[in-house]
Amino acid sequence: MRIDITLQQLEAFAEVAKTSNFRAAALALHVSQPALSRTIRIVEDLAGARLFDRDTRHVELTPAGRELLPIALRILENFHSSFSELSQFLEGRSGHLTIASLPSTGAALLPNAIVEFRRSHPQVEFSLIEGPAELVRSAVDEGRADFGISVRPGPQEPMLYRHLIDDPFMLLCRRDDPLAARTTVAWSVFATRPFIASGFRSSIRPITDAAFLQRGLQVVPALEYPSVAAARAGPAAAGAAAHAQRRPGDGAAAAPGHVPAHRAHHARGPVALAGGPGLHGPAAQQGSLALKPHVETSLSVCGMIAGMEKTPPKPLVIVKVGSTFEALRAERGDFENWIADGLDTQALPILVIDPRRGDTLPDAEAVSGVVVTGSHAMVSHREPWSETTAAWLAQLVAHDTPVLGICYGHQLLAHALGGEAGNHPAGVEVGTVTVTLEEAAATDPLLRGLPAQFPAHVVHWQSALRLPEGAVRLAGNDHEPVHAFRVGKHAWGVQFHPEFDAEAMRGYIDLLADDLASAGVDPAALRERVGPTDTAAGLLGRFARIVEAHHGS
After folding, report:
1. Selected catalytic residue, list 243, 336, 407, 548
2. Model's pTM, two decimal places?
3. Label partner for 373 (CA 20 to 30 A): which of 34, 153, 337, 358?
4. Which superfamily does 316-552 belong to?
5. Closest to 159 in 3D by CA, of 150, 168, 171
């Protein structure tokens, strides 16, 4: 037997069981008492049993209710604890990082960086993969490592390079060699002395070969070594042989019987941080960025690289500036859920950001597009979070990031760009109304090809009273002259709600019935006129296709 009870419904049941009082439970849940009663009736219908015995003075659990209560509490506890773990992961406070690194640079850079990083992220675990540059690149490319520390990849390789350090080359020779008395050594010494070279597969060999080539030197190695350890033993066994190698950090010690490393003129090998096709979680992203300040404590010259050309697509962001009524949310989800369903994108990840709770608004470079939801707030109140979001929207438009503002988002977009939002002079507009396109819509990327008139769901007391300079009015009706506008190439505002379906619209009319009646509007007549709005609803999918195309261009 399958019982489709939602988490919100279980929370309502558990709260009534806890308080034994519908009024107190409704206050705790921030819903109306009638809405809570309806929710409990739905739970009882789904469970196929009465869960509470209630009269005007008492509320008590029935045997079925007592059986369900520990199950409900266990489910809710598991849910909240699981999402607590997910929250830690998303905030980069937990997770697992796998780093691929060259042996020498990894030994110099990683230990201190990992120690410092774990002071602020103690639950992040690390694994290391050590090997030559080819192994580092393949580990990153195949997703076995979150990022790698290696030399600059070739231009033909699909890596995004972010410079980390310039690793100086040093000369390694015997203590009794005349070169040991010098502070610097010219590359030309390698043309006249036995030279131990790194293997062809190493990260060092291409750089030393390039240095010889640039100086017109013909250098034939007396010996090739497979590893740094073998090379350090080589000069002692080979008499006066010389060897050029990277200095693996300020703490590197000279091998027994060898002079401390000397600079072989101006040669530096770039060492980089390379990311795979999407760092595997926030801990990986924070870990890669945290390497830079920690590395600077170990080496004097630093830069950074990260990522690959095969990075994951930038998210399509839904900016949640409001919520629907609790009664609707409990049954149907919230604005962001309705919008995500309408966008119906498989190519782009959806990211929901709520500036009201202090969420950081990302840089324009970090997003593929933005949808701003509706809200029960008013743009004219200019709440701090709203003004911050408005300033951010102006930056997005300047960056030509695709933007779609819905209702509140429509008005906020106008306000952000120098227009004006405020109370509509004709009052509230609610229900299913007819929207008429302007001539400019015929060539508009979002609206072209739509019928000249189409039905849409609306509910608004405020409006975009004045559009920003340069904005193009695209649609309206007798009550609302600006039901849609565009500014720039890819930023739109729509006063109507493409995310609403007929059931949501009727729910709004029912929940606003008293306010509508006070405003002289007949809720029953509005409810009767509610109908399908397929054309308006299709705008969300159209916008998603525009974002996908713009992101891929």
Report:
1. 407
2. 0.49
3. 34
4. Class I glutamine amidotransferase (GATase) domain (3.40.50.880)
5. 150
